[in-house]
């Protein structure tokens, strides 16, 4: 029998591949700029603070990647759906923790008042076996999981923006350059980004006695093992470095955007794991509007906290008249519910473009009819659709991230984010051959979001 580890083929997210092969160096921060003895402008404290945070710069002889294993969804997902994947993240030397240039994992358990052993990912034995084996009960794997997912998310932002992203938290005289990650931060059904302390804190709890799905009733659930929760909270932290005032609720759309944007990054990150994408393509017959594996978030969390469904979903329900169930006018002011309007609109535009790009393959596979016969999809077709979905998701993720640079610094409205999406994409790709921008406008309009003014 072939050993399980030999069968795992690493997944390399597009952003990780770009970052790993980049020779980019961080620019030095200059001081105040003078002209004829007068100060033209000053470099703010936030910029100086950002200068202390510099990701690892690739050195000659460095490996391109560090392969590590993670849960692509959460521990309750089936291995037949690609629940465990080996991913390549950009290499950097690590101290035990792990502790790198911009991230450090804190092994302290706040609820049990205990410090667990730190994982040393540069240990020769772990290097040979690509890190710790995935396990819900291994605290050192918990540390590995958080570091791997957070590194992948930060790499996605660096790749999309073409620069290093500083942290938004202020550590005063400490000038801490690293975001602290606490896999066992507290006892509770929650996880959060703490701007004041500059850390991500993940809770753990005993699941409901009525837990559904593949979960043990009353069993321990660790939010630090949910890929979606880690990606969501990490996005909060990185977005805070791009727009520090988006944490101030100057309007209902501001916090809603924070939540929706973090959900979108987590969802599009699913498409970087080819085993998950292939399983979803097979289940949905190539229709991403029915691909729950890709479009839903934090399934284990939802199933163990009294619900029989995932925490949130980007897949909107459309009635017989083609009207989506989520609309801007009916969502109210609660950030997660209002944010779901933005999440669903962007995901709808994504599925629209996917359908446009793959119609030709469906016609070839169905003798020109465009309607596939019942049963399993041909293997080659599944592979083509999965590749198209992954590439398109990477493009949409880049569009969503780049648009943040085109947003106002305060009091963002969802319509303004639509304008930013269109402008950012037009600046990079003036010839919109597949109608990405048209799909975004139509999807936002169907959800009741329009550009004001």
Give the topology, please.
Blueprint: H1 4-7, H2 14-20, E1 33-35, E2 38-41, H3 45-51, E3 65-71, E4 84-90, E5 103-105, E6 108-109, E7 114-115, H4 124-128, H5 139-161, E8 179-187, E9 191-194, E10 199-206, E11 220-222, H6 227-242, H7 252-270, H8 274-284, H9 292-295, E12 296-297, H10 299-303, E13 312-313, H11 335-365, H12 379-403, H13 414-428, H14 436-446
Parallel strand pairs: 5-8, 8-10
Antiparallel strand pairs: 1-2, 3-4, 6-7, 9-10, 10-11, 12-13
Q: What is the β-strand count?
A: 13
The rounded distance between the terminal residues' Cα atoms is 65 Å
How confident overall, as mean pLDDT? 88
Q: Order of helices and strands, N to C? A: HHEEHEEEEEHHEEEEHHHHEHEHHHH
Q: Estimate the strand proportion.
A: 5-15%
Major β-sheet profile: 5 strands, mixed
Poorly predicted runs of 5 or more residues: 1-6
Give a description of the structure:
With 453 residues, the chain is α+β, with helices and mostly antiparallel strands. The chain is 40% helix and 12% strand. Strands 5, 8, 9, 10 and 11 form a 5-stranded mixed β-sheet that branches. It has a two-stranded antiparallel sheet with strand order 1-2. A hairpin with a 4-residue loop joins strand 9 and strand 10. Helix 6 packs across helix 7 and helix 7 packs parallel to helix 11. The longest helix is centred in the C-terminal third of the chain and has 31 residues. The relative contact order is 0.10. The N terminus is likely disordered.
């Amino acid at each position: 029998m072939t050993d399980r580890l030999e069968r795992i083929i690493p997944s390399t997210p597009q952003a990780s591949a770009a970052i790993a092969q980049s020779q980019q160096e961080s620019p030095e921060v200059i001081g105040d700029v003078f002209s004829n003895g007068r100060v033209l402008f000053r470099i703010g404290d936030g910029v100086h603070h950002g200068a202390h945070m510099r990701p690892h710069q690739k050195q000659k002889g460095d490996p391109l990647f560090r392969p590590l294993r993670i849960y692509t969804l959460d521990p309750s997902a089936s291995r037949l759906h690609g629940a465990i994947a080996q991913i390549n993240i950009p290499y950097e030397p690590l101290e035990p923790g792990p502790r790198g240039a911009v991230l450090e994992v804190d092994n302290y358990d706040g609820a049990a008042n205990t410090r667990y052993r730190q994982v040393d990912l540069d240990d020769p034995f772990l290097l040979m076996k690509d890190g710790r084996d995935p396990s819900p009960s291994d605290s050192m794997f918990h540390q590995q999981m958080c570091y791997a997912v957070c590194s992948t998310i930060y790499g996605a932002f660096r790749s999309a923006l073409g620069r290093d992203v500083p942290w938004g938290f202020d550590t005063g005289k400490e000038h801490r350059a690293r975001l602290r990650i606490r896999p066992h931060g507290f006892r509770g059904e929650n996880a959060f980004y703490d701007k004041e302390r500059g850390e991500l804190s993940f809770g753990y709890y005993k699941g409901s006695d009525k837990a559904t799905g593949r979960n043990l009733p009353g069993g321990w659930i660790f939010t630090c093992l949910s890929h979606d929760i880690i990606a969501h909270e990490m996005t909060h932290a990185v977005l805070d470095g791009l727009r520090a005032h988006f944490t101030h609720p100057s309007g209902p759309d501001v916090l809603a955007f924070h939540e929706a944007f973090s959900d979108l990054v987590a969802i599009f990150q699913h498409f970087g794991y080819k085993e998950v994408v292939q399983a979803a393509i097979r289940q949905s017959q190539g229709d991403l509007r029915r691909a729950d594996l890709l479009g839903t978030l934090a399934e284990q969390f939802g199933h163990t906290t009294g619900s029989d469904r995932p925490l949130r979903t980007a897949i909107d329900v459309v009635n017989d008249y083609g009207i989506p169930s989520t609309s801007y006018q009916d969502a109210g002011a609660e950030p997660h519910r209002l944010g779901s309007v933005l999440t669903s609109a962007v995901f709808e535009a994504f599925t629209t473009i996917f359908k446009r790009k793959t119609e030709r393959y469906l016609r070839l596979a169905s003798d020109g009819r465009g309607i596939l016969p019942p049963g399993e999809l041909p293997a080659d077709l599944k592979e083509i659709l999965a590749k198209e979905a992954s590439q398109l998701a990477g493009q949409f993720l880049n569009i969503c991230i780049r648009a943040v640079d085109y947003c106002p610094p305060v009091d963002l409205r969802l319509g303004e984010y639509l304008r930013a999406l269109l402008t950012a994409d037009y600046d990079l790709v003036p010839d919109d051959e597949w109608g990405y921008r048209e799909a975004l406008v139509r999807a936002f309009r169907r959800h009741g979001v329009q550009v004001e003014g």
